[in-house]
Specification:
The chain has three helices and no strands. It is mainly alpha-helical.
């Protein structure tokens, strides 16, 4: 299961712990905003998005996830 507490904040991943924490407060949902995760291949973008989405579901929010690798398939 994907969990926020299992995130690895290594230098290679360049994750900002404070920014991730702010995302898990879900203010962006309360404001009807979206967020976009970008980065190099293999840094864990999908894992991060899924973990945040999973936590949002636990908190009672509905989640919609899009992978934009090939936008023509959406």
């Amino acid at each position: 299961m994907l969990k926020m507490e299992k995130l690895v904040f290594s230098d290679e991943r360049n994750l900002d712990r404070d920014r991730i924490h702010r995302l898990t407060e879900f203010d962006f949902i309360k404001k009807s905003e979206n967020f976009l995760i970008t980065g190099s291949t293999g840094v864990g973008k999908n894992y991060l998005a899924t973990a945040i989405g999973h936590q949002a579901c636990i908190e009672g929010y509905k989640v919609l996830y899009f992978n934009t690798n090939n936008p023509s398939k959406t």
